[in-house]
Design a protein that fits this description.
mainly alpha; 0% strand; rod-shaped
């Protein structure tokens, strides 16, 4: 009977050890479930952040397209302005030529007026009665 008691005691000790181990495993499983829940929350936040980032990328692509369009418009405008400046330079050159021509005409008129003035002075001298 004593062997039976020893066996029953050993079995009880084993059962208590198994119960303790089961309890510890239950606590570990509960902790792991909490960790899984936390990881799911983090995953959900990351998914939301990724969706937001994708939206930002789409917005940035739109802005880049807009900037490229504006850049193309500015390039066209600059090309037009360069053409206009070339045209204006031509006009300025033409106006300088006209000014040179007008200065030449002015010089000719000044010479002609001097001649007319000399002619008038000569006529006046001839038509003046002699001085007595």
């Amino acid at each position: 009977m004593s062997d039976l008691r020893k066996s029953v005691g050993a079995i009880n000790t084993l059962l208590q050890a198994i119960a303790t181990t089961q309890s510890e495993h239950g606590q570990q499983i509960t902790g792991l479930r909490r960790d899984v829940t936390d990881l799911k929350d983090v995953q959900a936040k990351h998914t939301t952040a990724l969706v937001d980032l994708r939206g930002d990328v789409i917005d940035l692509r739109g802005e880049v397209s807009d900037l490229k369009r504006v850049q193309a418009e500015h390039t066209t405008a600059l090309t037009d302005l360069r053409g206009e400046m070339t045209g204006l330079r031509g006009e300025v050159t033409g106006l300088r030529g006209e000014v040179t021509g007008l200065k030449q005409v002015q010089a000719e008129h000044t010479t002609a007026l001097a001649g007319v003035g000399a002619g008038i002075a000569e006529l006046l001298r001839r038509t003046e009665p002699p001085r007595s």
